[in-house]
Amino acid sequence: MIFHDALDIAEIVRQLLEEGWEIHPEDLAHIAPYPTEHIKRFGEYSTHELGIEPEAYDPKLDVDFTQLRDQEPAASGFGERDLLVGADGVGSAVRQVLTPRTNPRDTGVRFVIGRTPLTEQFAGLSRAYGGKIVGGGVSLLLGAMRFPIPPKEAAEKLAPEVTLPDIHDYVRWAMVLPPNGSLDTSTAQETALSRMKGWHPDLRALIEQADPDNSTLLPIGVVEPGERWAPGPVTLLGGAIHATPPTGGNGANTGLRDADLLGRCLIEAAEGRQDPLTAVDSYERQMFEYGGEAVRHSLAALPAFVPNLERPEPA
């Protein structure tokens, strides 16, 4: 996660300072906490359903918040109200209906992403975590995911009704391939290893020992907010309306910002400080501004990770 990456970066900076290195804020401004745990960020949440369009809807936002002001949300049936939030990623079926001219754009960049159990064998790679390894026309990025408490154990304590897989510390790796390269090999590991001839044995072993169920080949696509639609009972959130390349380190954070902002706007409507239509419009106006900036920022950072790539301009 971006938050965990930020902690890793801070730890490395402290180590360097202890060794006598001089590090200035200007140096840190060029470091992005590359997201390491967001495989489904490109909208492949249920691939057999991506082509299913939502049912037609009335453009009038008909949400009565008056009964909510003196009631608990659970008792008032808030969850049954008529506001659809499309948060279904870059391949959003909701967006296709709401704003058909806002389409995903392929940057031409391909990457392989995977994860490998963090064992003693890879302890020597610790100084490369958070960095970039370049060779053979590709870039390899590494990040360590260390859990103070394993997720399964934490869930058992905090939410016993939730069952999580038994995941322990791992290395998240991502290899950025040359622009417009084909993804014609059968597995993610084979694609990466075919471009690592002569690389250090530990780096090759990192890819060879990757979890095949959590390794995949993906194109890097973007969605940039364009035309505004008339405020109504449907809105968009996260990658469905501003899908960013991972190189900006801001995709998940921007989606969380959306959720927070939309929630606060709807609370104001529930409390009678503005009507529902104005609340949704206020959310969308602000989201379009910072969401578009997040996409442009990530696109500007992309060439630093891709050999011989000129800056891709927003569509």
List keywords for this structure.
single chain, 315 residues, FAD/NAD(P)-binding domain, 3 domains, two-stranded parallel ribbon, 33% helix
Q: What do we call the CATH homologous superfamily of the largest domain?
A: FAD/NAD(P)-binding domain
CATH architecture of the largest domain: 3-Layer(bba) Sandwich
Average the pLDDT over all residues and give the rounded result. Answer: 78
- Using only C-alpha atoms, the radius of gyration works out to 22 Å
The helix/strand order is HHHEHEEEHEHHEEHHH
CATH class category name of the largest domain: Alpha Beta
The number of E-state strands comes to 7
Number of structural units classed as domains:
3
Strand order within the widest sheet?
3-4-5-2-6
Helix content estimate? 25-40%
- Largest sheet report: 5 strands, antiparallel
Structural class from helices and strands? alpha+beta
Strand content: 5-15%
Per the principal axes of the C-alpha atoms, what is the gross shape?
globular
Summed up, the helix count is: 10
